[in-house]
Structure formats: structure tokens, C-alpha cells
Design goal:
3-stranded antiparallel beta sheet, 16 helices, mainly alpha, binds coenzyme A, 55% helix, globular
Length: 381
Amino acid sequence: MNQAKDAAGSAVATGLRGVVAAASSISDVNGEKGELIYQGLDIHDLAAKSTFEEVVFLLRNGCLPKRAELDELRKNIAGSYELPERVIALIKECPTDAEPMDTLRTAISALSFFDKESRDLSREASIRVATRLTARFPTIVAAMGRVRNGLDPIDPKPELNIATNFLYMLKGELPDEFDAHVLDVALILQADHELNASTFTARVVAGTLADMYSAVTAALGALSGPLHGGANTAVMKMLLEIGNVDNVDGYVKDALAKKKKIMGFGHAVYRTEDPRATHLRRFSKEMGQRKGDTKWYDMTAKLEEAMKREKGLLPNVDCYSASTYYMMGIPLDLYTPIFAISRISGWTAHILEQYADNKLIRPRAEYVGPRNVPYVPIDER
Ligand SMILES: CC(C)(COP(=O)(O)OP(=O)(O)OC[C@H]1O[C@@H](n2cnc3c(N)ncnc32)[C@H](O)[C@@H]1OP(=O)(O)O)[C@@H](O)C(=O)NCCC(=O)NCCS
């Protein structure tokens, strides 16, 4: 292996930090400048002007859709919103106290039974599979959100976009326009983030030429971990525990003294503000103002001040999405599944890119165990 060794003589890049493991045109994170681009377009432009459906097209095709292309994608998404009956039945069979990410992972895995194209890895068929997956994530999350409370799932409305339809299916009534807009932008902001853990997982599985459902199911497993997708729920739990704005400073001092991490702050790549947090901060504030109570925004802003002062750490994407989703009336444990509703667009774009120029991903391990160990028969051990 031709690899640089560290001071201790190890060639291991712990956590693969700094290792470039794929060439990709899908998204790029500049941690020093605080920039995020999708296929060359700045996230701030997309957040201000685009829609999630446009971003789905952009990520997989490399350019924004023309009107006819967007219409076709929307039609294909709308035509795929509905779930097979047996997948709805499976969701109903899941324990009511199941972790939503476990139910989502199980339902997505089961969807492959009902997709005759799942083993066709051609670009044309894979795009159709990707569209079906993108359309069905929100239907599954909304269905599980209702079924566990003893409510019937609500049929999707094909005329609604993904964000509006999700809120409609979850709550059983058409959402406030501002809420639907905020969710649409939140979906844009979380759609892709280069080789994060779940995307890398998806590419590793796709690299074996396994089907897209297998790759996405594995990615869901990676996203479910608290160091990846779980931080937004943890932020809201923390805000509820802190209780009010006057308790924020004391809570932060106490937590840091105990070496506890404050969720929603810090990032493995960004050294400046996470550009996604800029938009979510604004939405959290405006959502509070519109709903007549800025308590959750005020607390988060105070946390931000304290973390900057005490640790020099800045908010990440999860910091303000927590209070934003809370004020929309979304249950806390659905925040990570909503992240998945967005990230399926990035995962599937990466899987398509992997299939298009595939090489099995197979790194090496530095062996640190013993050698030449004699085999001792069982009765002599
Ligand atoms: C995201 C995260 C894993 C990035 O980690 P990283 O760049 O590898 O940085 P480390 O975890 O090695 O932390 C470096 C230092 O900053 C501290 N730190 C990092 N994030 C912190 C946080 N959120 N709260 C308190 N301290 C934090 C660490 O304790 C460590 O301090 P030390 O040098 O005194 O030991 C980390 O910031 C974190 O756990 N944040 C909270 C979880 C979160 O919000 N995740 C969502 C990410 S989008």
C-alpha cells in the first residue's frame, strides 16, 4: 500500500477523515468558506428560488429542468405517491412504539418486492426506481405517523407537491402555505451533502451492483445513528428540557463542564456557519412570529450566543430545524425520517453516479492483531 503514515507509524485515516473516496459532480462542501453547491448551483440561490422537485432533477441530471422536464418529473412522482396495499398492511403490523426510522427502513426494504424493475440497473430503469422511492418516502412517513396513533393513513393528493402532500397526509388537512413553503426549502437544504456517512454507505452497497432498494435501506440504517441524522430530535428534546430562555446559559455552562456535547452545534467539515443553518434560523424566527410565540427561536438564538462565547462553535443544519419542525406541529421522532424524505434525492443521485462508472469499493484494513498463533485443541484451552 502506498500510503502516508502518521507519527505513530499507522496508515489508518481514522474515520476516513480527509480521504477522497469518489469523484462526484453532485455536491460540494467548502468547509472553510461555508459554501454548499449542488451541481455547481449555490445552496442560497436554490433555497431562495427553487423547489424540492427541481432539486431532485438537478441532482441526478446535472442541470435544472426545463418546464416540460419538470412537468414530467412531477407527473411521475405524483403517479408513484401511493403505496402497495401490502406495504400499508406491513406498516400497520409494526409495533406502535417502534422507532420511526426502523419502520421506514423496513417499509422501504419491503417495497422492493413490488418493484419489477428493481434488478434492472440501467440508467433509464434506475431513474424510474429513484422516482418511485422519492415519491414513496413521504407517504410511508405520514402513514406511520398516523397508524401508530390509531388513525387511518390518508391517501396522497397527486396535485400536491412533495412537501405539501406530506404535511397533508400527516395531519389530515391542507397545511398552511407558509409551513409548506418552509418544509419545501428544508427539503432542498438537506437534499445532499457530498460523502456523508449515509451517502457513502449507499455508494458502497451500490458498488457491489446490488439494487437501489438495498443501497437505500443500508443508507437509512446509517442515517438513524445519533451522530448523523438523529441530532435534530436531540436538539428539540434539549430545548424542552431547558424549558425557558433564562435557563439557557446555566444549562450550557453545566453541560460543557460535564464535557457533554450540545446537539445542533459543530460540524465535521464546516469551520464557518453551516449555510443551511442561515435559512433555518430565519424560518424558525418567522414561524414563531407568525404563530405568536418566539420562545423556541429565542431559546435557540440564546444557545447559539452561549456556544459561540463558550466554545467558538456555530450552529449546524439541525440547530434551527428542530424548533422550526416543532412549531409546524411535527412529532419529534419524525424529524430524522423527514431528513430521509429529503436525502433520498441525494442518495439516489449518488447511486446512479456509482452505477454509471462503477468500481467495487473495497478498502484495506491495517492488521493490528497477533500473528503465528498456534491452534490449541478445545480440551486443552
Ligand atoms: C458534528 C460533530 C460530530 C463534528 O465533530 P468533529 O469535527 O469530529 O469534532 P469533535 O467531535 O472531534 O470535537 C472537537 C472538539 O469540539 C468539541 N465539540 C464539538 N462539537 C461540540 C458540541 N456540539 N458541543 C460541545 N462540544 C463540542 C468536542 O468536545 C471537542 O472538544 P475537545 O477538543 O475539548 O475534546 C460534533 O460537532 C458533534 O458531535 N456535534 C453535535 C451533534 C450534531 O449536532 N450533529 C449533527 C451534525 S450536522
